[in-house]
Structures are given as structure tokens and as C-alpha cells.
């Protein structure tokens, strides 16, 4: 046997539960903490946070594939699709629209059993604008479906998926395995974590589509977790994977060769944990931001408010180099004198902390 799908025992994945139980406990603990933080949020803040996390997933799952979209394009699609007021889809980047639409569809279908229709719908959403791809069906080609790297003429084959002709049997088996999945002795959260990890691996093993298997498979991992927890879990798995893509490929490669998948389980649990921590930090930042705006909003003029919103809209520490007079003038399209006056005021009331001197003065938010 070269690959796991060729084994008689496939898909009986074997792993040591006791090794991942502490990770599941930590995950459950952090999940509880986040729920506590979010509980106090206004509906608007909740929606903003969830949109932020979906945005992150949409951007990073595309980046893993080497596709880079602008934050603004994807966010405008997400907000329009979520029906957030004042947002209309004005984004002509069809691929960015597609990935945003997929993210929302995945959250909307978290409670439904997985089916061929759901997978094909997701695929259709993702691929309908791709030329040369039949967006409504699983792969049927006779050429082998291989994961390769390297240059033309010097390819390394990392993996070969089952032939297309086997899929009509293997896909229903996968769907049944997924929908019947149970692991009662590690609690609902544990069950969700394990299903998420194994469903992703199983799906990548089948590689059932011509293209987009990574993106659909990561979407499926998110759905599996939400489904078992019976509520949408807002985490960005792809953001965590993307931090070390090579490790992801290595772990998949290793897991394709042996049904004993301890290393994969440990790896994937660490990805979920990292993604959850990231969501927690984002939630804490939203909280800090709200308290900050509440404290200062009555002392700020429109220009000051606009500049502060700009500095916080992309998350903590994302406004590189802090604020300075030049940036402030350009954000508000105003004269240097007005900018200097506002910056002075913001420092005096304690919104900004000033650093540097002369031409290199910059201002950080005193969050
Ligand atoms: N050795 C491997 N075995 C099985 N699957 C693998 C292996 N290495 C990578 N993969 C999966 O295959 C995906 C690539 O497949 P495909 O090109 O169809 O998907 P994609 O969504 O278009 O690309 P990407 O995953 O890069 O976004 C990877 O993202 C990963 O999920």
C-alpha cells in the first residue's frame, strides 16, 4: 500500500486519544472564555467580529492557494451578503465575491447533514466564474489526480488520489462516515475537534474536485466543528494553517501514508487551538475598542473619529508606523495646520501617545 485509501482498513483512522484530550480540554476552556467575552457585545459588535473572522478565513484560505484579494473587496461582499445595513455589493472582483459567498454559505449550512448537494453547491459557488472548470460536478477525468510541486519537467509527486472512476462509490461512503460520526467518550467539543481533523484529512484524501479541494476541505473542517457544537464557531483555521504552510503539506503527506494518524491529530488540534486564540484576541480587541470609543466619543470631532476608526479597523497593531501629520492630512484631506491642531488635541485628551521627535513624531492609540 502506498496511500491510505488503498488499504483494506480505510477509513479506520487510528490515533491515541489520550494525547489529544489535554488539547481538547484547553480548547473547551478557551471557547468558554470567548463566549463569555462575546456575550456582553452589542449585536453590531458581534456581527462586526464575525465578519472580521470570516474575512480572515476567506483571505487566508485563498492565500494558501496563492490567490491574493484586497480586504476591502472581500469585506464588502461579506457585508452585502450578510445584509449588514448600508452595504451594497459594489465589488466587481468575482473571485473575491465567490470566496466571501462560500464563507457565508458554510456558516448558514452548519446544522445540515453533509450531502453531495451541499458539496456541489459549495463547489459551484467557488468555481462558477473559473474558465475550463465544470462547476457542477465531481471530477471525472481519466488522468491521475496528483498533488505535485516543482517546476515543469521536474515535478515531485506528493500524493495521488483515488481514480475518478472510484469516486461514485467513495463519496457516498465518505458522506455516510461523516454523518454517522460519533465519539461519545470525549464530549461534544472533543467530538467536533476530532471530526473536523479527520473530515479534512478524509476529504483531501478523496480530492473529489478538479480544483479547489483545499478550500472546500478547509470549509468542511469549519463546518464539522460548528455542526457538532450546534452553533457557528467563528475561527479562522486557514489563518493558522497559513502561518506555516509547509508543515500543513508535510503533515498531510505523512497522514496519507499510514492510517495511524497521531501526528496529524496533534497538528490539527494545535491549528484549532491557535485559531481559537486568535479569535479570542480579536474579541478582546473589539471589547477594548468599544470601551475606548465610549470613553472618548463626546470629545472627538468628525475628523478625529474618522482617523481613529481607520487605525482600528484592521485589528490591533495593524496601522503600521502609527499616525503622523502626513497620514492624518491624507485621511481627512485637510491642511497641515488643521492636522497639527487635531493631533495636539488627541494627545492632550489622552487618545494618542506621542513618540519620536521632529520629523519622525508619530502617535499610537492609547488603547
Ligand atoms: N500530500 C497531500 N495529500 C493530500 N492532500 C494534500 C497533500 N498536500 C496538499 N494537499 C491538499 O491539497 C490542496 C490543494 O488541492 P487543490 O489545488 O485542488 O485545492 P485548491 O483549493 O485549489 O488549492 P489550495 O489548497 O492551495 O487552496 C491543499 O491545500 C491541501 O489541502
UniProtKB/TrEMBL annotation:
It holds the Pfam family Fic. SUPFAM superfamilies: Fic-like. It comes from the Bacteria. Gene3D superfamilies: Fido-like domain (1.10.3290.10), Winged helix-like DNA-binding domain superfamily/Winged helix DNA-binding domain (1.10.10.10). Residues 114-270 form the Fido domain. PROSITE patterns: FIDO (PS51459). PANTHER family: FIC FAMILY PROTEIN (PTHR13504:SF33), FIDO DOMAIN-CONTAINING PROTEIN DDB_G0283145 (PTHR13504). This is DUF4172 domain-containing protein.
Amino acid at each position: 500500500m502506498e496511500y491510505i485509501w488503498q488499504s483494506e482498513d480505510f477509513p479506520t483512522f487510528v490515533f491515541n486519544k489520550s494525547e489529544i484530550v489535554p488539547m481538547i480540554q484547553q480548547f473547551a476552556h478557551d471557547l468558554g472564555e470567548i463566549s463569555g467575552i462575546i456575550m456582553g457585545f452589542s449585536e453590531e459588535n458581534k456581527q462586526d467580529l464575525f465578519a472580521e473572522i470570516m474575512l480572515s478565513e476567506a483571505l487566508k484560505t485563498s492565500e494558501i492557494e496563492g490567490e491574493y484579494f484586497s480586504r476591502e473587496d472581500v469585506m464588502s461582499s461579506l457585508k452585502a451578503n450578510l445584509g449588514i445595513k448600508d452595504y451594497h455589493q459594489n465589488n466587481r472582483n468575482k473571485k473575491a465575491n465567490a470566496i466571501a459567498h462560500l464563507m457565508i454559505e458554510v456558516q448558514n449550512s452548519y446544522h445540515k447533514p453533509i450531502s453531495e448537494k451541499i458539496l456541489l453547491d459549495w463547489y459551484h459557488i467557488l468555481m462558477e466564474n473559473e474558465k475550463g472548470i465544470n462547476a457542477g460536478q465531481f471530477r471525472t477525468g481519466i488522468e491521475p489526480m496528483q498533488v505535485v510541486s516543482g517546476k515543469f519537467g521536474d515535478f515531485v509527486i506528493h500524493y495521488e488520489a483515488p481514480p475518478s472512476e472510484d469516486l461514485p462509490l467513495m463519496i457516498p461512503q465518505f458522506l455516510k462516515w461523516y454523518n454517522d460520526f460519533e465519539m461519545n467518550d470525549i464530549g461534544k467539543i472533543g467530538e467536533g475537534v476530532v471530526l473536523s481533523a479527520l473530515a479534512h484529512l478524509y476529504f483531501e484524501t478523496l480530492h473529489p474536485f478538479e480544483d479547489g479541494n483545499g478550500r472546500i476541505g478547509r470549509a468542511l473542517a469549519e463546518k464539522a466543528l460548528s455542526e457538532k457544537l450546534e452553533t457557528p464557531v467563528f475561527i479562522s483555521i486557514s489563518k493558522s494553517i497559513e502561518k506555516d504552510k509547509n508543515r500543513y503539506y508535510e503533515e498531510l503527506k505523512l497522514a496519507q501514508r499510514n492510517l495511524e494518524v497521531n501526528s496529524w491529530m496533534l497538528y490539527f488540534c494545535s491549528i484549532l487551538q491557535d485559531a481559537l486564540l486568535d479569535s479570542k484576541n480579536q474579541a478582546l480587541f473589539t471589547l477594548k475598542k468599544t470601551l475606548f470609543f465610549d470613553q472618548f466619543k463626546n470629545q472627538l470631532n468628525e475628523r478625529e473619529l474618522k482617523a481613529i476608526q481607520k487605525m482600528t479597523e484592521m485589528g490591533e497593531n495593524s496601522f503600521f508606523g502609527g499616525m503622523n501629520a502626513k497620514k492624518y492630512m491624507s485621511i481627512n484631506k485637510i491642511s497641515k495646520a488643521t492636522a497639527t491642531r487635531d493631533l495636539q488635541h488627541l494627545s492632550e485628551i489622552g487618545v494618542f501617545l506621542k513618540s519620536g521627535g521632529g520629523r519622525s513624531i508619530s502617535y499610537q492609540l492609547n488603547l
